Predict the structure.
Amino acid sequence: MKFDMGSSTLADLGKSTVGSTEDLGTLIRWLVQAAEPLEGKFNGAGKAAFDSFKAHTDEITNALNGSLSAILGGQGG
């Protein structure tokens, strides 16, 4: 089986992935901000899960960005 890609396909995919990492971090922060009005309405396990997510927002963002960076590295290879 043979795949034929244009000469700029991989470069275009790389640019798209780089932009996605920035967008992803922004979306996660927006999610936390959007959920803030619900913060006092959770109890028990739901409250613990929400508090954990909120406390680890930067860590989650970094992990997801690291994964996307690995994808970018794979596209370049």
Observations:
- The chain has a mean pLDDT of 76.
- The radius of gyration is 18 Å.
- The first helix runs from residue 9 to 35.
